[in-house]
Structure formats: C-alpha cells, structure tokens
C-alpha cells in the first residue's frame, strides 16, 4: 500500500509542485491551504506523514503541530516543517514541539523527497525494532518466529517457540500448566501436564546458561511457570 502524505501549504504553486512530484514517486497525496482545515483533514485521512508550512491562514503551523502532538492518534505521526522562516528560534521551537525534520524555502524537491524517505524509513525501522524483545543476551524476533542467544540463532520447535512467546507476553505472571496446555496444545491435552514440563525442560536447555539453575523461566511449585519480569 502506498504511503499517504498530507501537505498543509498555503501557496498554491508550491502545493501543486510538491503534490505532483510526490505522486510521481508513488505516494498518495492530499492537502489543504487553510490552517483550520488541517486537523479535520488529518483526522479523516490519517496520513503516514505530514508536510506542514508554518505560515498559514487562520491557524499557524506550530499550533497545528502542537495539537497533533497532544492527540493520541497522531502524536507519533511524522511531521516535516516546510517554511520560509529561517530564524534559529523557529527551527528549535518546531523540533522541540515534535517536528521530525525542518526544511526552509526555497528548497529542492529532490531534497524534500530524500528527507521524506529518510523519515519514513526511520519510522519503519522503529516499528520493526518493537517486534524484537531483548532480555540480557536473549533476543526474541516475534515477527520472524526466531530466538537468538548471544547472536546465535537457536533451534526451537514451533511449540517451544509458542510456549516461550506466551510466557514472555505474560512475563511476571504465573501461568498454570493447564492454561499452557489449553493455549498451546488445545483442550484435548488438558491433564497431560508432563507435556508442558518436557517442553520447559527443552527450552531451558536452549536458552539458559545453566538449565539446572534457570534465570529466565522460573518454576512456581504446584502451579506452573513464570518468565521473570
């Protein structure tokens, strides 16, 4: 799916120039030249990135940026400020409020597109990093269904991975054996708690430095297991 970009720019010729070039580069583009309409447009379209001029009729760009950063749904939406203002004060203020980048007029279309790609690439990288959970020398790559220890890929079976992922998702909580059986293996396995114990033992052999003295997966006697918080 193409990335959606909102242009909030009051100069029609600049708006059309940016829109034409972004569409030529495969982006879905929309916008407004009125500050009051910016919030409504962003709320409706939910863009992946906003190009925001500071000098706008009815509501200035810094106010719009501040409102975005105070709104739950858009506080993380990347914003590139585009303006004729060149004072250090405006630049610092914009970045302090939460702009991701800053470009002054006159500007190069190629540079603007390069900055857009850089911001979107960084945001994408940040999102990917969120799928990687790290515990000391252990890394769990949730999207890839892979676990690394000291950088080495561990050979886990699917059930071992599912069991580890469930424990991590509920880290700090004690999960009883029947819950683990029902969730990972299905209701038909209820009562066969040895299945859980065997998989826990195998997991410990793979992820722990000393599986006889585990630090990741704790046994809660008579109940079940807990991944340490």
Tell me about this structure:
It is a single chain. The strands form 3 sheets. This protein has a 5-stranded parallel beta sheet, sandwiched between helices. Strands 6-7-8-9 form a 4-stranded antiparallel beta sheet. By secondary structure, the chain is α/β, with parallel strands linked by helices. 44% of the residues lie in helices and 21% in strands. The protein folds into 2 domains: 4-129, Rossmann fold; 132-227, Arc Repressor Mutant, subunit A. 24% of the residues are buried.
Entry keywords:
four-stranded antiparallel β-sheet, elongated, 8 helices, 2 domains, Arc Repressor Mutant, subunit A, five-stranded parallel β-sheet, Rossmann fold, 12 strands, alpha/beta, 229 residues
Q: Which strands sit side by side, in order, in the main sheet?
A: 2-1-3-4-5
Number of DSSP E strands: 12
Number of separate helices: 8
Structural class of the helix and strand makeup? Answer: alpha/beta
Whole-number tally of structural domains: 2
Q: What are the secondary-structure elements, in order, as H or E?
A: EHEHEHEHEHEEEEHEHHEE
């Amino acid at each position: 799916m193409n990335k959606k970009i909102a242009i909030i720019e009051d100069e029609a010729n600049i708006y059309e120039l940016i829109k034409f070039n972004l569409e030529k580069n495969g982006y879905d583009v929309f916008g407004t030249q009125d500050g009051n309409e910016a919030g409504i447009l962003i709320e409706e379209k939910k863009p992946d990135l906003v190009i925001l001029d500071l000098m706008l009729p009815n509501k200035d760009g810094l106010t719009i940026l501040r409102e975005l950063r105070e709104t739950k749904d858009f506080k993380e939406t990347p914003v590139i400020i585009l303006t004729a203002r060149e004072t250090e004060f405006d630049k610092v203020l914009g970045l302090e409020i939460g702009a991701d980048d800053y470009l002054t007029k006159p500007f190069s279309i190629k540079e603007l597109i390069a900055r857009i790609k850089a911001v979107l690439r960084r945001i994408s990288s940040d999102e990917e990093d969120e799928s990687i959970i790290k515990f000391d020398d252990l890394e769990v790559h949730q999207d890839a269904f892979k676990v690394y220890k000291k950088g080495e890929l561990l050979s886990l079976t699917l059930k071992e991975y599912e069991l580890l992922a469930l424990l991590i998702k509920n880290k700090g909580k004690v999960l009883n054996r029947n819950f683990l059986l029902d969730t990972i293996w299905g209701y038909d396995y209820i009562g066969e708690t040895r299945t859980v114990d065997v998989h826990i033992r195998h997991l410990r052999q793979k992820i722990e430095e000393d599986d006889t003295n585990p630090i990741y997966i704790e046994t809660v006697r008579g109940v079940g297991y807990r991944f340490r918080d």
